[in-house]
Amino acid sequence: MFFGKLFKKDHRHYQTQGAKHLSAGRFADARVDLMEALKRCPADAAGDESEIRQGLDRAGNRLGELNLHEGERSFVAGELAKAYDHFSLAAELAVDDSIKATALAGLQRLQQPMQATSSAATTSGHKAHGGSSCGSCKDAGSHGQAELEIPESNLSEEDRFFLMVQPLPGELSGRYAALGAKFAKAYLLIHDGDDAQAFPLLQEMLVSGDNDIVFYELALIMYRAGRVHESEALLNRALLVNPSNSTCYLALVQLNAEGGRYPEAIATVERMLELGILADQAQFMLGELHEASGDEAGAVEIWSKTLELPSVARSAAERLIPILNSQGRTEEVKYLSKRYLKGCC
Fold first, then answer.
1. Number of domains in the chain
2. 3-state SS track over 39-73
3. What span, in angstroms and rounded, lies between the C-alpha atoms of 221 and 71?
4. pLDDT averaged over consecutive 10-residue blocks of the chain (345 residues)?
5. H/E stretch holding 237
6. Is residue 342 part of a domain?
7. In 244-310, which ranges are continuous DSSP H helix?
8. DSSP labels, 219-236
9. Are 102 and 205 in a shared domain?
10. Residues 61 and 181 placed together within one structural domain of the fold
11. Is residue 123 part of a domain?
């Protein structure tokens, strides 16, 4: 107990570390340490608190600028889901009003061109991984690490890793960041297209115990290598470790849909709904799977219920309108267009 107190790190330790990271341009690391410093800062250290907050503002603004850059690059490249992630992150991290305003303007620009599958991908935080006819299932099987480009030569590996994991859904960004230096190295190798060197690093991590995220990343490597059965086995092992890992369910849906195994894909989505995992997106995907399997009536029924979910209502309307049009249900088409698409279909 005595040694624990003697070596206990106070707010000044993290404040000093944060300042060093700021000077070195390692803004993600700076933000982590300064947030810890602020949490530990006592009430009678107003001067230190002010300095910590100034450092946090600087780090947040710089990360906001980096995300603005990536958002613009993604927008020009037509990668709308990725642009949405970066603009959203810029608005969240930045303190400067001009950066926030630019980020919000970017989000507004995305509202018109964003289509149904892009909307589903944006909400779940994923990017296309393969050639399924099921749009949101395609978007479910990857974090987009193979597409994200961060060209600034002065950006440290730590900051690159930080930026790459931020768009992950829910608590995953924090869990990815907590896996340590070896995982970060493997993740960057994957991003750079070097699965061969990343694979043994991830395998080494499993020696100390099973981890659902490591299983998931290994599954993606197997998938890209065309070893689909091994990929599926790894995803199932990941879900045994953590039955609430949304990315594993989404990847399994994709694998089954691409293989034409629609009953298995539908069962996986229904399991997501039972567990309350990405419930709105799962409801939308269920309609896609029914349509892809040839059950148009089932798709219409599901998407009609999905209209009650604000986050995916527009996407559901966009999928319903052409089907209803083909059936001559013009009044329903007019209603959906007016209510959900503002007259545009």
1. 2
2. HHCCCCCHHHHHHHHHHHHHHHHHHHHHHHHHHHH
3. 26
4. 44 85 82 87 86 90 86 78 86 84 79 38 36 36 38 62 73 88 93 91 94 95 92 96 92 91 96 92 93 95 93 90 93 92 55
5. helix 228-241
6. no
7. 246-258, 262-275, 279-292, 296-306
8. HHHHHHTT-HHHHHHHHH
9. no
10. no
11. no
